Fold:
Amino acid sequence: MKKIFRNKIFMAAAILVIVFVAVTVLFAVFGKEGSTVQRAAETIVSPFQKVFTAGWSRLSHFSKAMTKYEELEAENEELKARIREMEALIRDAESYREENQQLRALLGMEEKNPDTELVSALVIAWNDASWSSVFTINKGSSDGIEVGDAVIVDAGLVGVVTAVSRRSAEVSTVLDTSVKLVMNIFQSDLEVVGGGEFSLMKDGMLRVSDIPMGSNVKLGDTIMTEENGGVPGGILVGTISGIKTEGHGMSDYAVVTPSADIEKLSQVFVVTDYVSTAETGD
Structure:
């Protein structure tokens, strides 16, 4: 659009120049110096000359301004391109930094759990239903993940894999009502069943059942996993923060505070394989 407008201005200027030159030449040829014809020609041409000179000056300034504008516009586009390149470099650097952090975390977890095979994964979505505690990770069956695999962080057990696709998987946390695992009260070596309960989920707690009445279980005792399917034994689950009697009055249950901060999960580790205690004879 700017080029079309500019071309029209130059065409008009060219026509004006041609007319001016033609009139000047005609009167120069046919008029004698000092003659009435020449004076008439000068009188006629003079206003055109002034207009032409002023117009040409304005046109020259306009042309320079347009040229400068186009140069600035080109420079602006070049700067925008450089900014886009820098933003891409920053994104790449951030991605490399996050990947490096994940690899460091994975290395640390593997050093702490030498008998397990771990897959590092990122939490990419949470189920927004108020009656469940489920999230999605960015790793799936193509990474060796299967339903029933334990999901852990440095602080302890997070939950178990409950659904798998090729590139992602769903994890039900220890707070979810669908999760029921065999656990162990470490201080008394007492086997119990632990998992989510709807009334406790909103407070970030889980329930441990089947505690015999009169046992020496107490507040602050540690809950660990018992080996079961894809869940290895000896993983910290949490600590007992409350002990109550079951409604039937024949046993107790404990309210447990998870060792892992479930609400702040961003990176987790899936246990895809481990050395069973049956294999080691422990």
Q: What stands out?
A: The longest strand covers residues 116-126. The first helix runs from residue 2 to 30. The chain has a mean pLDDT of 79. The chain is about 40% helix and 30% strand.
